[in-house]
Amino acid sequence: MKMFKFGVIALLAGLAFTACQTEKDAMEKHHFTNKLYINSDVKSEEILVKPGASSVARTLSIATAIPVKSAITGTFVYDAAYVKTYAQAYNQPDVEALPESMCVIEDPDVTISAGASNSTVASVSFPGIDALDRNTVYVCAVVLKNITDINVIAPKTTVYYVFKGAALINVVCNMTENRAAAQAWATPDKFNNMRQFTAEALVRQNQAGRLISTIMGVEGHFLLRIGDAGVPDNQLQIASSSNHTNSNMQLTLGKWTHIACVFDAGYVTVYFDGRKVLDNAYCGRTAVTWGAYGSDKGETSGRYFWLGYSYAGDRYLDGEMSEVRVWDHCLTQAEIQAPNHFYFVDPDSEGLIAYWKMDDGGGTILKDSSPNGNDLTLDSATKWPKVSLPED
Question: Same domain for 374 and 294?
Answer without folding.
Answer: yes
